[in-house]
Each structure stands twice: as structure tokens, then as C-alpha cells.
Amino acid sequence: MTQPAVPGSATRGAVDLTGLSTAPAASASGAAPGGSDQVHVKVTDENFTEILNRTVRVPAVMVVVSSRLPESVVYLGEVVEVAKTMQGRLQVVSVDVDTNPGILRALQVQSVPVTVGLIQAQVVPMFAGVAPKDQVREILTQFLDLAVQQGVTGRIEVASAAPSDELPPLHQEAYDAIERGDLAAAAAAYDQALVQDPKDADALAGRATVALMQRTEGADLAAARAAAAERPDDVAAQTLVADLDLLGGHVEDAFGRLIDLVRRTSGDERTAARQHLTELFDLVGNQDERVKRGRTALMSALF
């Protein structure tokens, strides 16, 4: 169970977000990018200063996600749904770590999703992972109490809020299927999207992630870890744990496990471990710094 409002649970080390953007800062009463009436706005390395300064007047909760982990995006949607019931007392901002390395470095995120609060341009650590809606509501209510204590009581106008982050129909169908646990339907929706556009990068990434979820469906993490500890050179046992780690957002743990397996094995077993690791690299994306480091480590392990 995710624990609420535990300082340091979502990020590691000091959090300094003040130097992320060189763009002019907005005034405390200024509108958030995308319009002050939006319950949910996206944050980037470039516009973060503007959004951060807005929290002097209106508190915000930031959800850190990865577009390559659809379950993190589904969770973001649930947080937004809870926020919509709070009469505009807070705004939800989201950041995709795959495309915003500055925020990723500043937060020192270890896994996604991560949820943090923003009050008076300061970070309030909340929790890592997902939580049920009722627990999210409780945590956000406690966060708003803290905001009131600090005199941050502004509101956004939710009545005229425009829909944000609308997805193509088949992508939305896939996300909805993931949310209800129907992975076969999610895979079918992504497959149909790829028939329409074979170069749809989001559909390719989503389809690969659903395949990962299907491979790990029903797996018991504790049992998988125990089996991997007992059989350190068993490719099937090690790749299952690596898949579970990646699905949970522990990207570097997954890569490290398989790189170590490549070092210890030879022949067909080494080939299988290397190929599986390469598939995980492709899933995370070559632009990710962790993938770049992982490929370098893999070359070292091979030679």
C-alpha cells in the first residue's frame, strides 16, 4: 500500500527546481500555460518556472509519468478526476520524464509514477507509485489543508475547463482497456492503430508495453525474485524479474540485472539474455539516458 505524504519517498536527495528554465517567470497572479481554467496542464523543462510561480497563489499536485508506461498515464487520469471534484482548489500538472530530462534530473526520480505537491514554488514530497482513488482523495485533502495553513487559497475556474490531452480514439480505447485490466483488448486497439499508421510511435510504444504487461500478468513479484535468487543463471527467471522491474518503473534495476546475466552466461543463454535486454532498451527508447548508459555497459559485458 502506498504511504501518504512521506517526505523523501517520491524523490531522492535535495530537490531544486528553480533553475530549470531561463524563460521569464510569470507573476503570482498570472495564468498558467494553457489557460488558468484548466484542471490539468502539462509541464515541460521550458515552461516549468511559469507553472511553479503560479503555485504562490494556487496549489498544484505534480504527477511524473512516462508515455512509455501507459499505466502511469492511466493513474494520472485518476488523479485529475479526483482534482475535478475539489472546486478548483488545486491544479494537476503532469510531466513526461521521457521528454523532460531537466525535471527528471532535478527530482532524481527512481521510478514512475511519482506524485509531489507544489506550494509557494516549493516541492512537498508525497509518494511514489499508484494509489487507489479514495487514498488519493485523502492525500490531496491533507495537502490542501497544508496549503491553507500557508495562506495559499487561490482557485482555478473549473466550470469552463476545456478538455485536455485528448487521445486518438484507438489510443483512448487502449488506455481504457488497460484501466479495466483487459490487456487483449488494449493490444488489439494498438494493433488497429498500427494498421492505420505503421509509424505511429506512441502506438508502437504502447503495444510493446502491453506485451510486457501480458508477459508479467499473474506473476508474483516475491516468488519471482526468490526464484531468480535461487537460480542466478536461469534466463527465464532473470528476465521475468527484469520485466517486472521495468513495468514498475525500475528501469536501471532491470537493465543491471540483465547486464549481469550477460556477463555470467555464454552461448545460447547469453544470446537470449542479450536479446531480451535489447528489447527492453527499445521499449524505453534510445533517447533515454539510462538506455545510453545501459548500452555502454552491455558492450563492456560482451567484450
Question: What is the secondary structure topology, with strand pairs?
Answer:
Layout: E1 40-42, H1 48-54, E2 60-65, H2 70-83, E3 91-96, H3 101-107, E4 114-119, E5 122-128, H4 133-149, H5 169-179, H6 183-196, H7 201-216, H8 221-230, H9 235-247, H10 251-264, H11 267-284, H12 289-302
Parallel strand pairs: 1-3, 2-3
Antiparallel strand pairs: 2-4, 4-5
Helix pairs in contact: 2-4, 2-5, 5-6, 6-7, 7-9, 8-9, 9-10, 9-11, 10-11, 10-12, 11-12
Protein name: Tetratricopeptide repeat protein
Pfam family, one: TPR_20
Describe the protein in words.
This is Tetratricopeptide repeat protein. The chain is globular and about 65 Å long. It has three domains: 1-163, Glutaredoxin (3-Layer(aba) Sandwich); 167-217, no CATH class; 219-303, Serine Threonine Protein Phosphatase 5, Tetratricopeptide repeat (Alpha Horseshoe), CATH 1.25.40.10. It contains twelve helices and five strands. The model is unreliable at 1-36 and 160-164 (pLDDT under 50). The longest helix is centred in the C-terminal third of the chain and has 18 residues, at 267-284. The protein is of the alpha/beta class and 303 residues long. It has helices at residues 48-54, 70-83, 101-107, 133-149, 169-179, 183-196, 201-216, 221-230, 235-247, 251-264, 267-284, 289-302, and strands spanning 40-42, 60-65, 91-96, 114-119, 122-128. Strands 1-3-2-4-5 form a five-stranded mixed beta sheet, covered by helices on one side. Strand 2, helix 2 (70-83) and strand 3 (91-96) form a beta-alpha-beta unit.
How would you briefly describe this protein structure?
It comes from Nostocoides veronense. The chain has 12 helices and 5 strands. The chain has 303 residues and is of the alpha/beta class.
